[in-house]
Write a structure and sequence with these properties.
alpha/beta, disordered N terminus, globular, two-stranded antiparallel ribbon
Length: about 270
């Protein structure tokens, strides 16, 4: 009774903070993997760096979770581990499977791949497996979606671009109805293609380049999405409210720094 009374007497902001810190969820964002030094940079990591990261996470007691697990937890179904982490790979490069798959299995982790529909189309047609640049074809996406290492989610069909429209953002001066029609067209096309290819798809999206707006969130909810990943570099503190899953924040992992230095960001935010 005394503890309850003390909690109720806290200022509203302090009470909210107490609830907000129930689950601390860091999310790391990878892109391409390559052993070639000339390709490595802000969005291309060496397989050795990925392995070092996975070693760090395991040694520090982290357990990976999937988007599906997170969604179910937000609905009051299931539990999350004491130190959860999410490992995400954007774009759907073939290198994620070739280099990342064996390492994830070795260290007992799962990861999320956000696939670009048009890229999967292109490499299904080309059958080009040059790992410097190749993306996963639909047959590979389908196969790994039914296994237990990778989970597949949407990275849009054709909106992974910085041309007139930047990612899922609005074009300057674009009205809501036109924006909504374009976004629904693209995301429905992705969902329909995955259904046609028998891809097991989680109801989540990674916004290309982290570009979105309030209208984006309302539209994806109409389409049945239950989570969305941004590029904002902050830790997620989750209370269990499903609404919190629509702006999940992630840390981009660049080449050239140690695992210890990279993960120290998690202690600074």
């Amino acid at each position: 009774f005394l503890l309850l009374t003390a909690f109720l007497m806290l200022p509203a902001s302090a009470a909210a903070e107490t609830k907000e810190e129930e689950i601390r969820l860091p999310i790391v964002m990878y892109h391409h993997l390559s052993p070639k030094a000339r390709l490595q940079g802000d969005y291309v990591l060496s397989p050795q760096e990925l392995e070092s990261d996975l070693q760090y996470l395991r040694e520090h007691g982290y357990e990976s979770i999937t988007t599906e697990q997170l969604i179910q937890w937000s609905k009051g179904e299931g539990q999350l581990p004491e130190k959860p982490v999410m490992i995400t790979f954007d774009d759907g490069y073939e290198s994620t499977l070739v280099y990342g798959g064996p390492l994830l299995k070795k260290y007992g982790f799962q990861a999320v791949i956000a696939v670009i529909g048009s890229a999967a189309d292109l490499f299904t047609e080309k059958q080009d497996h040059m790992l410097d640049y190749s993306y996963l074809a639909w047959d590979a996406v389908r196969e790994i979606s039914h296994e237990d290492v990778f989970e597949i989610q949407c990275h849009t069909y054709t909106m992974h671009s910085l041309n007139t429209r930047k990612g899922c953002g609005k074009i300057s001066g674009e009205d809501f109805s036109n924006y909504k029609a374009k976004l629904i067209e693209d995301l429905t096309r992705f969902q329909d293609k995955c259904a046609a290819e028998n891809v097991r798809l989680v109801n989540a999206i990674a916004f290309p380049y982290g570009v979105y707006c309030d209208d984006t969130i309302s539209i994806i909810k109409e389409l049945g999405f239950e989570a969305a990943f941004t590029c904002t570099e902050r830790i997620n503190y989750l209370s269990g409210d499903p609404e919190e899953l629509f702006e999940l924040r992630r840390f981009n992992r660049p080449h050239g720094i140690s695992s210890e230095k990279f993960f120290s960001k998690w202690e600074e935010t």
